[in-house]
Amino acid sequence: MTVTEPNGKVYQYGTMTETRLVHLAKEGHKEAYDEIYNRYGKGIQSHVTGIIKDPREAEDITQIIFGEKLPKNVKKLSDEAGNTQQPIYLRAWLHTVATRMSFNISRDKRRRTIILERYEGNDESYEETIITELYDYKRRESIAKALDKVNKDHKIILKLRYEADLSYAEIAKKLKLKLGTVMSRLSRARGSLRESAPELEELLD
Predict the structure, then answer these.
(1) Rounded Cα gap, residues 15 and 109, in angstroms
(2) Distance, CA of 181 to CA of 11 (rounded, Å)
(3) What CATH number corresponds to the domain at position 98?
(4) pLDDT per residue over 127-138, tens digit each?
(5) Closest by CA position to 90, among listed 77, 107, 103
(6) Are residues 114 and 130 in the same domain?
């Protein structure tokens, strides 16, 4: 992948510094996001998996980091680098975000485990299981109805994720796309769905 500067020079995304990639991402170059994910996606997912010990949830966290956290922070990262004339250490920033999210989730899991152990063998434990199952059913039903409000491309990728319950890797294989492209498309699709049906905000987290 390449980008042509105003002076006519052509640069390869694969050879760019982290600082340049962040500046381009800020300017709206989707290829910059793809390159960032291609460089660091697997490493971040592996790092998260090592902390929370759940590959599927680690995949979700990685998607949130690259599809939501990074886009929300590229302007701040780019502007701070411009003001201080310092390079952007993007890999370090990504690892910091991943570590913080992972430990927060691990802590919440431990709390849930302690609570469930207290109710082990009691009626409340069974009741909580039923509530969880009903919530999952309601989540899928609500999302299915809301899909009619988004465009065809967004509907396809959302159906594969939330109805077929495919992983990002499985979606990438099915649609013959790069994993980074799937993650960015899914992030945009989720944003579109939130705009069309704000009541689904909590269900999509």
Answers:
(1) 40
(2) 21
(3) 1.10.1740.10
(4) 444 444 444 555
(5) 77
(6) no
The amino acid present at 166, given as its one-letter code, is L
Of 83, 101, 118, at which residue does a domain stop? 118
**Per-residue pLDDT reduced to its tens digit, 43-71:** 999 999 998 888 888 998 898 899 889 99
Residue type, 31: E
3-state secondary structure of 4: strand
Tell me the H-state helices in 28-122: 30-52, 55-64, 70-84, 90-118
First to last CA, the chain: 32
Domain that holds residue 107: 1-118
pLDDT over threshold 80, residue 42:
yes
Token digits of residue 85 = 């004339």
Given a contact cutoff of 8 angstroms between Cβ atoms, the answer to whether 54 and 91 are in contact is no
